[in-house]
Amino acid sequence: MFKTTILAAAMVALSAMTVQAHVGLSYPCARYHPAAGCPAPPAGQSIDYDINAPIGTKDTINMPICKHTVPYSKRSTFKAGQTIQTKYSVGAAHGGGHCQWALSYDNGKSWVVIKTLIRDCLKNAQGTYTAPVQIPANAPSGKATFMWLWNNAIGNRELYSNCADIEIQGKNGGQIKGVAPLIANYGKGSPTIGEFPLASQPDGSELFNKRKAVTITVKAK
């Protein structure tokens, strides 16, 4: 009994340590997040105790975009035009960097960026970080995937990504127009954003200006 108690305590401590490494989306609940209040993973999937880890570097792809491809069966509901106060658990902010937030209505086959924050995302963040992200006022109703992407400013050239499964209450059918996300520092052949700890250093922001225009159409029911 005593050994079991020690083992359980050690597992809890290890889980807390892994969750705090680097940065991860905690609200809306990222897929399989271990935090209390988040849904249980779908059948056949497991809690992600390394939720804050990067999905790849400029040389390797470790996990798919979103980290996990099977959506939650339970979704958070938001209204079109509503601002979500997104939250993040921060272990190491790596000098901040660039963040993008995007929506998909087809489980990640196509994305449209709804917010971009250059350089200042997560800057000086410690422990927790919040960022307001508005759902477009013209967003159609339906099940959607809410994605967060982060390219860090300092350290290994990495890409971070988490996705939350949400339900949007908007108009019946319609379109969202914008740009596709920039997927950088994610395996060989992807665009590379170098380190930019100083304001005078190139930060790859010109790559964001070259993102392709996209239109996502949701059919009326």
UniProtKB/TrEMBL annotation:
UniProt keyword terms in alphabetical order: Signal
Signal peptide stretch: 1-21
Protein's name in the database: Lytic polysaccharide monooxygenase
